[in-house]
Amino acid sequence: MASDSTKKMTNGNPLFLILGFSIPMLAGLVFQQMYNLVDTIIVGQTLGDSALAAVGSTGSINFLINGFCMGMCSGFAIPVAQRFGAESYDSMRKFVGNSIIMSAVFAAALTLIVSVFCYQILAVMQTPADIIDLAYSYISIIFFGIPVTFLYNLTAGIMRSLGDSKTPTYFLIMAAGINVALDIVFILVLGMSVNGPALATVLSQLIAGLSCVIYMRKKFPILKLKKDDLKLGKHHSQVLISMGIPFGLQYSITAIGSVILQTAVNGLGTVAVASMTAGSKVSMFIVCPFDALGGTMATYAGQNVGAKNIPRVKKGVWTAQLLGTIYAIFSLIVLFFLGRFILHLFTSTDIVIDQAMMFLLANAVTYTLLAAVNIFRFAIQGMGFSTFAIYSGVMEMIARILVAFTFVPLIGFKGAIWASPVAWLFAVMFLIPGFYSCCKKLENKFNGENNYHLG
Fold first, then answer.
1. Burial class for 240, CB neighbours closer than 10 Å (0-12, 13-18, 19+)
2. How far apart are CA 214 and CA 211, in angstroms?
3. Would you say residue 29 has pLDDT above 80?
């Protein structure tokens, strides 16, 4: 039987379930972005535009690597959600045990590889010479924290797959407060440069990850693992790889386009990089609800596929899209009237604010597309079609590369601001029909196999 800390999403009103699950996730994402914003504000206001640009210039490569880690952990959680929805708890625990072992292996390998080639990657990205050393100082510490990224995201993903989106949020909020305090100590008290915020980020996430482990051991008896659960099994490891790697690659493939675009922006100079950094930081904060809806749909779809209820999956997806569209309209209004005021928190340089504002508004008018990208993509992944979802990432990558090689050389920064909207459009054109194709495949499978079991 499920413990009191778990929550089923296979029964009840989808609207209330989606809201109830996504709001705690949203709170966690908001606080996560808040301490990211504090990092940026402190760096920009105390260390200057060069330091701001240095941190910002690493954004795409940071997302490329850590996005893969977070995506892989999310993928590992999908079979857990499906087995939980199917009430196949022995198999669920084996997936949890196997995911722990595989996460440790991937974390060690990735840390070694990116740490060795970090500086060379920044050079290939044409990071401006006046900020490349600062950029390396920041991102190298972040990459040494890859095992910590796995620790928090795997434990949080497992808890969410069992219907508990609140507890990981509480620990993330705690980590946000710790991160802000450490920022102040490292930068304002100890006089550290951009390596201060990087170290603060790693340490605060470590505390959040360890807190999740302790909580899970005490509050989730359903996750009490036996010795055999921690042995790699052929079936369970193959399923995890088939879910985790495509999930991670989907993040990374999308990020490749961002890296190429960032390289093009880097070639426009430090002012352009600072503008993109400021605009991106505000945008990342504003789009948190879309991320929360996406994460919610992965669990919602996973549990309901486990219960073989595809019509309920469809209803939930369109309920989430309605919520996303309403918020997209609201966010456009907020940015139109308050965008410049928010940007003044990062810098007082007029040209940086002007360009960052162009970036924000170009994104905001297409946030409905972003909502659809997150909702449909994560639903597809939750349904078990992780490889299929990669294709949408490929579409986004192609779009950003096209912008980098066409719009940016022709019209400079004004071209770069349309990279994300074009990428979202490309992805949506693939995702919506793809979602219905996946639904049809599962319906045919369930109808044709009366004795179908998830394992």
1. buried
2. 5
3. no
Q: Count CB neighbours of 34 within 10 A.
A: 17
Closest-CA residue to 62 (of 36, 86, 42): 36
Question: In the structure encoding, which two tokens stand for residue 272, read together?
Answer: 């352009």
Q: How far apart are CA 78 and CA 84, in angstroms?
A: 10
pTM > 0.85: no
**What is the spatial distance between Cα 160 and Cα 165, in angstroms, rounded to a whole number?**
5
The predicted pLDDT at position 48 comes to 74
Q: Rounded to whole angstroms, how far apart are CA atoms 88 and 91?
A: 6
Among 36-40, 100-104, 163-167, the range scoring the smallest mean pLDDT is 36-40
Tokens coding 147: 């095992």
Q: How far apart are the first and last CA of the chain?
A: 17
Average pLDDT over residues 172-179: 86
Residue 231's CB is within 10 A of a number of other CB atoms, namely: 13
Write the secondary structure of the chain as one string of H (helix), E (strand) and C (coil).
CCCCCCCCCCCCCHHHHHHHHHHHHHHHHHHHHHHHHHHHHHHHHHHCHHHHHHHHHCHHHHHHHHHHHHHHHHHHHHHHHHHHHCCCHHHHHHHHHHHHHHHHHHHHHHHHHHHHHHHHHHHHCCCCCCCHHHHHHHHHHHHHCHHHHHHHHHHHHHHHHCCCCHHHHHHHHHHHHHHHHHHHHHHHHCCCCCHHHHHHHHHHHHHHHHHHHHHHHHHCHHHCCCHHHHCCCHHHHHHHHHHHHHHHHHHHHHHHHHHHHHHHHHCCCHHHHHHHHHHHHHHHHHCHHHHHHHHHHHHHHHHHHHCCCHHHHHHHHHHHHHHHHHHHHHHHHHHHHHHHHHHCCCCCCHHHHHHHHHHHHHHHCCHHHHHHHHHHHHHHHHCCCHHHHHHHHHHHHHHHHHHHHHHHHHHCHHHHCCHHHHHHHHHHHHHHHHHHHHHHHHHHHHHHCCCCCCC
CA 297 vs. chain centroid, Å, equals 14
pLDDT tens sequence across 208-267: 999 999 999 888 888 888 888 888 888 888 888 888 887 787 777 766 776 777 778 878
Region 290-319: what's the mean pLDDT? Answer: 91
The separation between CA 321 and the C-alpha centre of its own chain, rounded to angstroms, equals 18
Instruction: Give the chain's radius of gyration (CA, Å).
Output: 21
Annotated domain spans of the chain: 14-445
Q: Give the per-residue pLDDT at 36.
A: 65
Span 45-69, pLDDT tens digits: 777 777 777 777 777 777 778 888 8
